[in-house]
Structures
1.
Amino acid sequence: MAGKVCLQPCLGLRKEAVLGRQALYVVHEDLRPDTTVLGCGPALNANTQEDVDFINMYPVVAVEACELDCATRLVGKKGKKAAVTVRISDLVTSLAIDLAALPDHEIDTEDAAVQAVAKQIAEQVDALLA
Amino acid sequence: MQEQDFKVAVLPCNGIGRLVSTVVRLAGYRIKEMRPDQVVLLSSGRLAVNDAEDRAIFDKYPVLVIDGCRPHCASFMCDELGKTPAARLYVADVAAEGKISIAGEKRRGLTEKGQRLVDALASKAVEEIDRIIADEMLSTL
């Protein structure tokens, strides 16, 4: 069993990407610090050893801000397949998050929307490790 | 007279792993606010998978690269896509030049202390953008 999960966000510019990024800080630092690693897209693209190791050693949860699925595709570009792709837009709908009410660039990690998204992603982590 | 389209494509690394990643990300937005009509922000996520829309912008305009940490991932991306940047900025250089410390800051959200480096980085980037555009304009005369 892998023991950990690699969280791989798309790291785009839109609000959903910011929401996903902040949620991943919460998952990695607060909710599941012992069972997650945080993958950096540009570093993976640049073949930074740590980030290459992450996707080779652990199942990947790709967290996407839009339909382009850049994180999932980047993992594919490096020869692996994401175990799960989470779309923030789906979570926004299912959690009834008012995206328009969130700030564009800086969303507090204590924000209820960030916490709710983080909880959902943590559940995906748990499911992969079960 | 023919309207010229003088813009600069800004490629911040937009990483997530380090404190400087947050500095770079927020500086990207700040740069766009400071030069809304001259700057097109590129998404490193999209460029990494060669998204057509971002690739077209990347190909069309001179590129300013902003690297947060030592692997210089935004520069790598530029090289990978076969383009020499018009300018490169590295956060550590800007921090050293301005003697700005961000020790104690957190990557999930910056305080005023971290925002000082964001401001310094954005100001430096805007200087480069103005220079690049002036260079482009003068080259057409």
2.
Amino acid sequence: MSRNGERIVLETQDLAKNFGGLVALNGVNFSLRQGEILGLIGPNGAGKTTFINVVSGVYMPSRGRVIFQGKDVTFLPAHVKCRLGIARTFQLIHPLTDLNALQNIMVGAIFGRGLGLREAQREALAVADFLGLRDPGRPVSELTALEVKKLEIARALVTRPTVLFLDEAMAGLNIDETEEVMGTVRRIREEGVALCVVEHVMHVISKLTERVVVLDGGRVIAEGPYEEVANDERVIKAYLGEEG
Amino acid sequence: MPALSCKKRIWAFAIALLAVAAVIAVCKPYVLIQGLQRGGLYALIALPMALILGVVGIVNLAHGEFMMLGAYFAYWMSVSTGIDPLVAMIPTFAAFLIVGALTYYGTIKPVLKAPELNQLLVTFGLAMALTELANLLWTSRPRKLPLPYAYSSATIGHVTFGTFGFAYLAGALVLLLLLLWFLRHTRSGQAALAVGQNPRGAALVGIDVNRTYLLVFSLSVALVGAIGALFLVGHSIFPGVGSPYTLKSFCIIATAGVGNLPGILWASVGLGTAEALVSSFRGYGGWADLVFFALLIVVIMVRSYRKRVT
Amino acid sequence: MRHLRYVALAAALTAAILFPFYSGLYLRQVAIIILIYMGLALSWDMLLRSGQLSFGISGFFGLGAYAAVLLQLNTGTPPLVTILFGGVVAFVVAFLLGIAVLRLRGMYFAIVTLALSTIFMVVAKNLPSLTGGVAGKMLPSVVFGGDSVKTYWLALGVALLTVLASELFQRTRVFYALTSIRDNELVAKSSGVDVFRYLVLAFAVTSALQGLIGGTYAQIYGFVAPEETFSFTFLLLPMAMALLGGVYSTEGPVLGALLLGALGEYLKLHLPYGHRLVYGVIVVIVMLGMPRGIVGAVRTLAWRVGRKGGGR
């Protein structure tokens, strides 16, 4: 599998989003290549989650385009984009509490991939196994923090996405748990999924990603391998500005 | 709250409105008078609901029932002690502050954190129970107080009309001003606004969220109870008298926009006038009730469509 | 264990079908009204499972009733067909209304459905040439000529149809769709669920059932009139039944219907008025203390006991 995949699988052109008077995204040009693990970082309020929301169809952009595998998918609703192969996890964990863990995953299998109930269950079990989520018939309330994170990823992964956005999938995990999830992310990439990882923990970004995009104030301010970006003046200023 | 685009839009709307009002005043003066009076009553009843719904986000489907109970309370006070219902508004207000507080602790507070559905269901059950309770206690026989001043009239040109109805409009204006003053210039009012916008944030800043909800809810119930006393003057009352007003209040709030208190006055008068207009055409009187609901559905459809585009 | 459940179900079904043969006229009539309410309670719950609260039960019930009666009076269609027609009319109206309104949810949707009953009532009162106005319309004869055994089986059939629909909603992909929508629409949407489509269909199907039941009611009692047919009791009582028995299930509303139906009969003997007070209080108490109703409480208890005993 080519690590520096040539083919661009997802790109956005001049993507913008306003909420009334608030400008959340201000012309984002972004590309994600096949087989890539891309890091998306930026200070709080930079627009990372909004970006994911617009790309995945939860919001409609005010300007710009989203191109997925060569097709313009800008205004397609979220459930259609999911079926096409754009998946994402949620930052604030939202497991569906009226369903047990396995059923949570099945939702993605049934509606994201159009499987029948039996097949969906088999696929859900397989994905749970792949992620190391044991005994998935348990109610969601019994899962540990790490298991809930895995469930969140499982739900997105079972839809067999081409592109997967992980929104702070490692927040709140300890060192061992973080290592485990990082390994999982690499295994997901080996299955052929292009990943975009949003994280605040820089150690993770530096070890996991080949390329990093830095967002600030709704714009891309830097792009490149982590070492370059981390020493970029503008990036340092953006983060310092946050602390000040 | 949706941002109103520009002042021009408001001005154009206001002018169009005045033009329509002028036309009606000339062709069918009674319609305008009725519209103002009825609209005043609708606004008066809708404002307390707008307070809890628009400001702190609590839905109370038993709103009309509290008005009905207030009316009965004033009625019995009047019958047993001889005082005028207008005077009885004060003890009614006080009594219903307590009623509101009890209702809050008993039924609202427990479901505040639960989904909106629970509030709807609980207050719906409460509304039904209260109506039926009134039925059991006082039967469905309508009651009315003989009050000469309720029938006072005046004449302008060749048009003679009842004047008491304008008390509702005046009351609505006064209430609106009082509420706006309360929300903007008292600490409790500002707390209420803060809690409505962001309960967690408000708590972090040190606002006693529970006390705010309690205060605003009790205030709303007390107000609508006292309004019931005022209602008693101009109408005959029966157990089911309050319930249409709950729905109509909601229609008005939805039309004006949740959180837009002054808009309630406009919406009420507009709807009251539309209702009176429909009533004025002989044979269509029965359809007047639908005006509100037709408008509600139109407003919701428009908002629904707009949402589709975002 | 599973076999026991099937045996129990089969036994209950047989008992229900054979009911007219070991009960008198009075009990049969009580059973008929319970079955009607049961269907309404179930159909209300079916929509609730999607997270949407509809106050439109009495509206669509009345709509179906009027549709059935008017069809028969104006075209002489056989009674059973008019019942189906009631369901179809309700389906179409709900479908169109749903498309228009269901992008807004929660409170707005609930209030619109609350207004429905009043709207239909006003329309019924004000089109006397079509609907008979305030006096309503009477059928020349009730279905099956009033034979209470056949009428009971009709009501039972309609109730069983609703039970079947409810089970379909519980055991097919519809369950996953509605439950995920109810739990978190955003997540459901992002997992591929077409939320709007499922909501509109759920609303249309459940309203169709209510219309069907309304048509059945009209044929059994032989008349429709604005105040009686659109009465809020047809709204409040099914809700109380579903809440008491336990929402989000088939067993819950069925149990609630049996319990409150029996209670209602008892009340009628000792308390001529004021039933709505009891039902209203039940709704409030259940919402405050036992939101998942009896079935929910039993399930939680069983789960807790199971954990203490087994412990994985």
